Amino acid sequence: MDVRADKSAICLVMPIFNDWAALPRLLDNLADAFRGSGGTLDIILVNDASTEFEHFQIKNSATHDVISEITIVDLGVNVGHQMAITAGLHYAQQHKAFTAVLIMDADGEDEPRDAVKLVAAWRNQPDHVIAAQRTKRSESLIFRVSYGLYRAIFRVFTGHTISFGNFLLIPATLLPSILSRPELIHHVAATLLRTRLPITEVPTTRGRRYFGSSQMNVPALVTHAIGALSVFSDVLFSRLLIGAAVVGSLCVIGSVVVACLRFFTTLAFPNWATSVISFLTLLAVQALVLILCFAFLMLTSRAAMLLTSMEVSRLVKGVRRYASNAAPVA
C-alpha cells in the first residue's frame, strides 16, 4: 500500500472521459483558488477508458505549491460516471492519506472557487458531507425542465429530495461507511441520501465547459434517474405495491357495488360499466403480480450488486503518477 505522508492533503477525485484538453486550465484554476488555504491537493484522475488522444503533462510550475501529486487511474473499460467515481474513491481509500475527499468533474462545469467553498464549509462542520447545491444551471431549457421532472419523480417515489449531484466533499472518517454501500456504483448522490449521514448543502452556480459540449443530455438524464431510483428500489417497490393494492381494492369494491346495484335494485345501469370495472380489477391484479415479481428480483440481485461493488478495483488497468516536476513515477 502506497500511502502518502501528508495527512493534511485533500484528495480530489475527478472522473474523466475525453476531457483532457480542459485539464491544464482546470489545474491552473484549482491552484489559484486553493493557494493560501494552508493545504495541498492530491489529485486522482479516473480515466474512464477515454477514446480520444490523451496528452497530459503539468505545464505550469505555479501549481506545484498546491498540487502535490497527480495520479491517473486507467480503467480497462468504460463504466460510466458513477462507477468511475466509485473506483476513484476505492483507490483513494486504499492508497492515499487525506482528511477529506473532494469529487468534481474535470470539464470546468464544477468551478474551483466553489470547491473552496465546500472545503470552507467542511472545516466548520467536519462531521458532515458537504454537497454543492445548484442555484443556477447552464443547460438548455429542455434539459432544465427534464431535470425538474426527474427531481419531482424521485421525491414522489422515494420520499427524499435530491438537490445535489456529484460535486461534493466527503470527510475521511465517513468514507468507509459510504464505500460499504453496494448502491454507490449506480448513483453517488442518492446513496448518500440512503446512508442518512448529515449533509450540508452549499449554494453554487454551475459553470460552463472549458471545451466541447456536455455529454449530459435528456437520454443520459433518464439513465441517471433510473440509477438514482434503483438506490431506493425497495422503497420504490413498496410504494408501487401499496398503490397497486389500493387501486385493486377500489376496483374490487366498485365491482361489488355495481353487482349489488345491478341485481338487487331496479336502477338503470349501463351495460358497459360492469365490463370496465372488471377490466380495471384484472389490470390491478396483474400490476400487483408484476410488482411482486420485480420485488423478488430486486431482493435476489442484492448479493450480485454487493459482489460488483467489492470487485470494482479489478476495473483498474494501470496507474500513472506525476510528481510536481511532471516526471512519471513508477
Structure keywords:
single chain; 330 residues; alpha/beta; Spore Coat Polysaccharide Biosynthesis Protein SpsA, Chain A; 2 domains; nine-stranded mixed sheet; 9 helices; 9 strands; elongated; disordered N terminus; disordered C terminus
Strand and helix layout:
Layout: E1 10-16, H1 23-34, E2 41-47, E3 67-75, H2 81-95, E4 100-103, H3 112-124, E5 129-136, H4 141-158, E6 164-171, H5 175-179, H6 188-195, E7 199-205, H7 218-231, H8 233-264, H9 271-310, E8 316-322, E9 328-329
Parallel strand pairs: 1-2, 1-4, 2-3, 5-7
Antiparallel strand pairs: 3-8, 4-6, 5-6, 8-9
Give an overview of the whole structure:
This protein is an alpha/beta fold and 330 residues long. The chain folds into 2 domains: 10-150 and 160-215 and 314-329, Spore Coat Polysaccharide Biosynthesis Protein SpsA, Chain A (Alpha-Beta Complex); 234-309. Helix content is 48%, strand content 18%. It has 9 helices and 9 strands. The protein has helices at residues 23-34, 81-95, 112-124, 141-158, 175-179, 188-195, 218-231, 233-264, 271-310; strands at residues 10-16, 41-47, 67-75, 100-103, 129-136, 164-171, 199-205, 316-322, 328-329. A 9-stranded mixed β-sheet has the order 7-5-6-4-1-2-3-8-9, sandwiched between helices. Helix 4 (141-158) packs parallel to helix 7 and helix 8 (233-264) packs antiparallel against helix 9. The longest helix is centred in the last third of the chain and has 40 residues, at 271-310. It is elongated.
